[in-house]
Specification:
An eight-stranded antiparallel beta sheet has the order 1-6-8-7-3-4-2-5. The mean pLDDT is about 95. The longest helix is centred in the last third of the chain and has 18 residues, at about 100-115. The chain is an alpha+beta fold. It contains two helices and eight strands; from the N terminus they run ββαββββαββ.
């Protein structure tokens, strides 16, 4: 499975979030994105990130962009701190959501168990990093970012 490691500095994201039971993520996340595209969006957020914050019985999912200090928060928006870390980056090629869900399954079912001793992940966070849409979405590119535990 193609991947590389990249160090990222801490940053803050701003966006819209919701709690999703793990067994419903593959169905609910694409619907959340559809709702996001129709939502009144006063900050004109683009959705550069899908932020997956893992909890015991659910995932808190945010559609987010990088937070800039002059942005005004309204009642529907939230922020989250993304810590500095070394991240394993997995490329995703092809139309969404199928390509992303396929790579995500491979990461959690194959890559993480095979690398947990030499490259342990923290297991509480994952980012989906999105590029602008392309005309032929079968040629789309995005990435999954998984933070490593600090040694």
């Amino acid at each position: 499975m193609e991947s590389w490691i990249d160090a990222k500095k801490a940053f803050t994201v701003i966006g819209y979030g919701m709690d999703i039971p793990y067994d419903q993520c593959n169905a609910v996340c694409p619907e959340f994105w559809k709702d996001f595209s129709r939502r009144k969006n006063p900050l004109q957020l683009k959705g550069m990130f899908g932020v997956c914050m893992m909890h015991e019985d659910h995932m808190h999912y945010m559609i987010a962009d990088v937070y800039l200090p002059w942005m005004k928060l309204d009642d529907e928006l939230e922020t989250a701190e993304i810590p500095s870390s070394d991240w394993v980056i997995f490329p995703v090629h092809g139309a969404l959501p199928d390509s992303l869900q396929k790579v995500n399954s491979e990461v959690w079912n194959s890559w993480v168990p095979a690398h947990q001793k030499d490259l342990p992940t923290n297991g509480s966070l994952m980012l989906e990093m999105y590029m602008p849409p392309v005309e032929d979405m079968s040629q789309y590119y995005c990435e999954l970012w998984l933070p490593l535990q600090k040694k």
